[in-house]
Amino acid sequence: MPRPRLREPKSNPNMNCSCPVIIILAGLLWSAAAPAQDIFAGRGVYENHCASCHGPDGRATMPSTPHFIDGMGLYASDSDLIRVIRFGKNLMPGYDRALKESEILNVISYVRTLRR
Question: Would 14 be classed as within a structural domain?
């Protein structure tokens, strides 16, 4: 008895090239969404750039500076904190040229551990 012949699916020329594009885009999105969160490296950044005003333990030493130990300023989203660190706010200078993106993310992760 002869085997039934299976029909081959119709070929769509657009489908042949879209799969690699989707895979590449998914990889880019995944890598862009994976933040660096090295708390220990963030501590070093904090000690070098932040502790003089925000205090070594998160208790601010300057007037009208947020105390991180009670959560002041930490209720903001990461994107809001990134903006403040990059461009500054009130008396705080911006660190856009001094810190890399990964250092900013690391220091945000560290500062969130100071809350008691």
Answer: no
